[in-house]
Amino acid sequence: MDKQVIRIIKGDITEQEVEAIVNAANSSLLGGGGVDGAIHNAAGTKLLEECRTLNGCATGEAKITQGYDLPAKWVIHTVGPVWHGGNSDEDRMLARCYRNCLKLAAERGIKTIAFPSISTGAYHFPIQRAAEIAMNEVISFLNDRPVFDRIVFVCFNDDTFSSSNRVLNERIK
Ligand code: ADP
């Protein structure tokens, strides 16, 4: 695997110049707070109109829409698990989010994609544990199907940024 494909940055996902950004949505897909609110604000009301046609999304699944006013052409909406202490299938569900987003992007021929730290805001998934799952899924997908030019982890705060860097440095020596 070419390690240059994976990037970790501190920033706002709505500003990323990639083909697709991932939204950490809720199961209604009708908008919310955090990164979901930021993406809807930046994309404009047409995004909500398209989301209304999708009939929601189950935890661990992913659905794609256009990006409208965003620099990104596409938004891949996924629904992360709510953290209930770790014994409610949270790890497996979070892994499925990353895998299903990558799968959907690959099917569409998307080569550049940016992820937020899914579930670690309002859904309270522990940051370091989430970073490990995210990195594992991205690395194993790339090992299997090296179809991406760039996969960006967009970290909104210092904790997420340092955890992600720590995990990547451990995985790629
Ligand atoms: P969830 O409900 O899945 O936990 P949140 O949006 O509450 O989703 O939080 C997920 C992560 O997204 C958190 O690390 C939060 O700080 C981050 N975040 C919030 N706004 C943005 C943004 N504009 N760009 C990137 N990440 C963001």
Please characterize this protein's 3D structure.
The structure is a single chain. This protein has five helices and six strands. The chain is an alpha/beta fold. A six-stranded mixed β-sheet has the order 1-6-5-2-4-3, with helices on both faces. The chain has a single domain (about 20-165), classed as Leucine Aminopeptidase, subunit E, domain 1. The chain is globular, with a radius of gyration of 15 Å. The model has no long low-confidence stretch (mean pLDDT about 95). Helix 3 (about 90-105) runs parallel beside helix 4 (about 125-145) and helix 4 crosses helix 5. The longest helix has 18 residues, at about 90-105. The chain has helices at about 35-45, 45-50, 90-105, 125-145, 160-170; strands spanning about 5-10, 20-25, 60-65, 75-80, 110-115, 150-155. A hairpin with a 7-residue loop joins strand 3 and strand 4 (about 75-80). Adenosine-5'-diphosphate binds next to helix 1. GO terms for molecular function: deacetylase activity. This is O-acetyl-ADP-ribose deacetylase. InterPro entries: Macro_dom, Macro_dom-like.
